[in-house]
Amino acid sequence: MNVLVVNAGSSSLKYQLFDTTSEKVLAKGNCERIGDGGLFTHKLPDNPELNVKCEIDIPNHTEATKIVVKYLTDPVHGVIKSMDEIEAVGHRIVHGGAFLKESVLVDDSVLEKLEGCRDLAPLHTAAHLMGIHGCIEVMPNTPQIVVMDTAFHSTMPAEAYTYPLPKDMCEKYHIRRYGFHGTSHRYVSGKMAELLDKPVEDTKIITCHIGNGSSITAVKGGKVIDTSMGFTPLDGFMMGTRCGSIDPAIVPFIMEKENMSPDEMNNFMNKKCGFLGVSGISGDCREIEDGYFKNDPVCVHTFKLLAYQIKKFIGSYTAAMNGLDAIVFTAGIGENTPVIRELVCADMEFFGIKLDKSSNDAAHHQDDSVIISAADSKVKVYVIPTNEELVIAKDTEAIAAKLK
Ligand code: ADP
Question: What percent of the chain has pLDDT over 90?
Answer without folding.
Answer: 95
